[in-house]
Every structure is written in C-alpha cells, then in structure tokens.
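Q: My hope is that you can spare some time for a protein that puzzles me. Underneath my words sits a plain record pairing an amino acid chain with its backbone structure tokens. Those tokens are not coordinates but codes from a learned vocabulary of shapes. Thank you; the sequence and its tokens follow:
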Amino acid sequence: MDKKVASLTLRFDAQVVSATKDADGKLIEGHEERVVDIADEWTFARNTRSRDPNWKLVATDQIS
C-alpha cells in the first residue's frame, strides 16, 4: 500500500513454443519443437477508494 493505492505483483512461469507458418503451413520463423521456459512479473495497482473495481497493469518485467 502506498497511501490509498494498492499494488500487487504476480509471477507467471510458462513453457512456450514460438513458430510462425505461412498460409500453406510451411514454417517461416521460429521452432515448432523447441520449448522455452519463461518467467514474467506483472504489477497491478488500484485506488482502494475508487468505485472502479478493476486493477490496472502498471509494469511488466521479464525475469528469464
């Protein structure tokens, strides 16, 4: 908490595959079989006195 603004940071861990294919299904970029581990931290904030219940994304950081 910073005065009336609450902040929350979450870590997302994922395994992703990145590949782009053309209309014919031919691989044009990336690797279909290569799995990459990634980790991100996302920080959300909201004014606790606001009627708006939504949290806003205020920062992202790639960890690995």
